TrEMBL record:
Matches recorded under PANTHER family: EPIMERASE-RELATED
InterPro entries assigned to the protein according to its UniProt record, in alphabetical order: Epimerase_deHydtase, NAD(P)-bd_dom_sf
Recorded superkingdom: Bacteria
Name this polypeptide is given: NAD-dependent epimerase/dehydratase
Keywords assigned: NAD
The keyword NAD appears for this protein: yes
Length: 326
């Protein structure tokens, strides 16, 4: 039986890019996604159409909340590594629809953990988030910092994922690696995130909502750097030193960028000025994110490094082509 890497959320932004990288490397990928309507389903289907052209890709439409479905997949396929990227994303949406986060991020993740335990999976890699740091005052954010005060339900579910993973690692020697991802952007990105949302509004000469008057910093991380980091973690031996089967990494660019500068670069690449609507800081938002990535760099010998100017240029090139904009 052919061995597969199981990628959940394979039609999502990061899941798509990771699946494509693995497929290009000749890896057999089993992907699952429920193609929900949190954002434009046509974007998810367009990503999926690229993946389904690969002979070494098998797609299942379904939700990780469906334990019966998951168990059947683990029984049917030889899965040795799981990369769990399926989740209900978005900080602000968690204020509107908390139950979606409980189901996908908690119930779904519990199902993944249990199937990994039963089938003695070699390594579970899962997406956490920089949001777990909350309004952390210590800069840059280190994986050793306390993260006991999430300021959104989304962040709370991601912190819960880390705790759940730790418990399974401790009780069952299940190797788990959590990824605290910092503001990922790039081609095929989500429409609810800044790059896509702002670019769309700027080209249509519609106002963009800029919170805290743009006086926020984000550790924007280009998608290719994220995928290279995950790919190297997949290739690396899982955490099994003595009793420590559990690991957490920050994946960030280690270079926070002022939101106002981010908008300026977008304007330059699009050749249009933004119509800006200045608003106060929103509930659940933080003033700055900044990743300490020393441990990641030491362990995988790779440092995310794409400057915002280069990353935005590549994003805008894709955005114009995808939206057939001159």
């Amino acid at each position: 039986m052919v061995s597969h890497i199981f990628v959940t959320g394979c039609a999502g932004f990061i899941g798509f890019h990771l699946s494509k990288r693995l497929l290009d490397e000749g890896v057999h990928v089993l992907g699952i996604d429920n193609i929900n309507n949190y954002y434009d389903m046509s974007l998810k289907n367009d990503r999926l159409n690229i993946l389904t052209k690969y002979r070494n890709f098998c797609f299942i439409r379904g939700s990780i909340e469906n334990l019966e479905l998951l168990e059947s997949l683990f029984d049917q396929y030889d899965i040795n590594i799981v990369v769990n990227l399926a989740a209900q994303a978005g900080v602000r949406y968690s204020l509107e629809n908390p139950h979606a986060y409980i189901q996908s991020n908690l119930v779904g993740f519990a199902n993944i953990l249990d199937c990994c335990k039963k089938h003695q999976i070699k390594h579970l890699i899962y997406a956490s988030s920089s949001s777990v740091y909350g309004d952390n005052k210590q800069i840059p954010f280190s994986v050793g910092d306390r993260v006991d005060h999430p300021i959104s339900l989304y962040a709370a579910t991601k912190k819960a994922n880390e705790l759940m993973a730790y418990t399974y690692s401790h009780l069952y020697n299940l190797p788990t690696t959590g990824l605290r991802l910092f503001t990922v952007y790039g081609p095929w990105g989500r429409p609810d995130m800044a790059a896509f949302k702002f670019a769309n509004a700027i080209l249509r000469q519609q106002p963009i909502e800029v919170y805290n008057h743009g006086n926020m910093k984000r550790d924007f991380t280009y998608i290719d750097d994220v995928i290279e980091s995950i790919f190297r973690l997949i290739q690396k031996d899982p955490p099994t030193e003595s009793f420590a089967f559990y690991k957490i990494y920050n994946i960030g660019n280690h270079q926070p960028v002022q939101l106002n500068y981010f908008i300026q670069v977008l304007e330059e690449q699009l050749g249009k000025k933004a119509v800006v609507k200045l608003l106060p800081l929103q509930p659940g938002d933080v003033l700055e994110t900044y990743a300490d990535i020393e441990e990641l760099v030491n362990d995988i010998n790779f440092k995310p490094k794409t400057p915002i100017e280069e990353g935005i240029s590549k994003f805008v090139s894709w955005f114009k082509q995808y939206n057939k904009t001159p």
